[in-house]
């Protein structure tokens, strides 16, 4: 029997990809005050994938040639300070049906510093904390398909999707470059995910429910149009807390020090191949 997709797309507010990060004065974190933030690029890919799945299941001129189960709901979720509402509005302008903001106040969360966190990052959950929160949301909202970016561009952990699949006991596919559905004889659906690996591509299949993490070659996200931005203001956005989901947000890791990478030394020029070989020998490279 075919079951409609109830999709969860977690999104994160990060420093804009075009901004060069700076270490703060205490060398404990990246400076985030008065810095432009935007939606994590990998999460944009996840949103676009969810929207295309809905378009593929909708009759009409924009129907995709690739079949897909009916998508009944696309839920965007973000956990963090009040400004996370901005990325959730962006997500709904792109096509998410509704959103949940799990608010974590840096002021009230700063007490976690004594238990392993650091001031300035105490309002940010660790990957395991995010996975536990997503598990609670999946169960409460009765989701059967989770699409999330393989990593966020601020901490590059690449852990949350795998942890979530483990906590839920679901199948998983990571670093997806293509997502498709195949219908079985009993009208159920199999998820087919293709990803790039060293020397080629790998294809995996799994029944629903499933967790999929997305890579950069999956698609090209759409821009939110002005009419959709205005419509997004009327879409439902719920405010929640970690306590509502019974999740402990205390950090288990402590950042000892954050430093910028050392400046690269300038290169040198050689006149010919013999000069290059001689120079490489001087450097001990050959």
> In angstroms, what separates the terminal alpha carbons?
65 Å
Number of E-type strands? 12
Helix content: 25-40%
Average pLDDT reading: 86
Structural class: alpha/beta
Number of helices in the DSSP assignment: 7
Q: Low-confidence runs (pLDDT<50, min 5 residues)?
A: 110-122
Q: Which sequence of strands runs across the widest sheet?
A: 7-11-6-1-4-5-12
Gyration radius, to the nearest Å?
22 Å
- Overall geometry comes to globular
Order of helices and strands: EEEHEHEHHEHEEEEEHEH
How would you characterize the largest beta sheet? 7 strands, parallel
Report the β-strand fraction as a percent range.
15-25%
Describe this structure in words.
By secondary structure, this protein is α/β, with parallel strands linked by helices. Helices cover 26% and strands 25% of the residues. The chain is built from 7 helices and 12 strands. The protein has helices at 41-57, 84-94, 106-109, 127-141, 160-168, 226-232, 273-282, and strands spanning 5-10, 13-15, 37-39, 71-80, 98-103, 145-149, 171-176, 178-183, 189-197, 200-207, 210-214, 237-240. It has a 7-stranded parallel beta sheet, sandwiched between helices. Helix 2 packs across helix 6 (226-232) and helix 4 (127-141) packs across helix 5 (160-168). The termini are far apart. Mean pLDDT is 86; it is low at 110-122.
List its salient traits.
single chain; 286 residues; alpha/beta; three-stranded antiparallel beta sheet; 7 helices; 12 strands
What's the gist of this structure?
The protein is an alpha/beta fold and 286 residues long. The chain is built from seven helices and twelve strands. 35% of the residues are buried.
């Amino acid at each position: 029997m075919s079951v409609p997709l109830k999709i969860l797309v977690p999104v994160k507010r990060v420093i804009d990809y075009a901004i060069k990060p700076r270490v703060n004065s205490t060398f404990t974190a990246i400076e985030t005050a008065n810095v432009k933030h935007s939606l994590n690029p990998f999460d944009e890919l996840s949103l676009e994938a969810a929207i295309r799945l809905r378009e593929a299941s909708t009759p009409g001129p924009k129907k995709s040639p690739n079949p897909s189960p009916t998508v009944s709901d696309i839920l965007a979720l973000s956990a963090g300070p009040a400004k996370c509402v901005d990325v959730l509005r962006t997500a709904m302008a792109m096509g998410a049906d509704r959103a949940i903001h799990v608010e974590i106040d840096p002021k009230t969360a700063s007490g976690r510093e004594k238990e392993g966190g650091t001031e300035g990052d105490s309002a940010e959950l660790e990957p395991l904390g995010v996975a536990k929160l997503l598990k609670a949301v999946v169960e409460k909202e009765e989701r059967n398909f989770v699409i999330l970016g393989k990593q966020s561009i601020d901490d590059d952990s690449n852990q949350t999707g795998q942890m979530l699949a483990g906590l839920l006991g679901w199948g998983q596919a990571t670093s997806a470059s293509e997502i498709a559905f195949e219908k079985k004889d009993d009208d159920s659906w199999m998820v087919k995910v293709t990803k790039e690996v060293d020397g080629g591509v790998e294809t995996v299949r799994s029944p629903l429910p499933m967790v999929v993490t997305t890579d950069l070659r999956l698609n090209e996200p759409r821009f939110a149009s002005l009419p959709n931005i205005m419509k997004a203001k009327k879409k439902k956005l719920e405010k929640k807390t970690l306590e509502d989901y019974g999740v402990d947000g205390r950090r288990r890791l402590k950042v000892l020090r954050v430093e910028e990478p050392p400046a690269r030394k300038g290169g040198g020029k050689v006149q010919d191949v013999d000069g290059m070989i001689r120079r490489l020998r001087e450097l001990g490279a050959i």
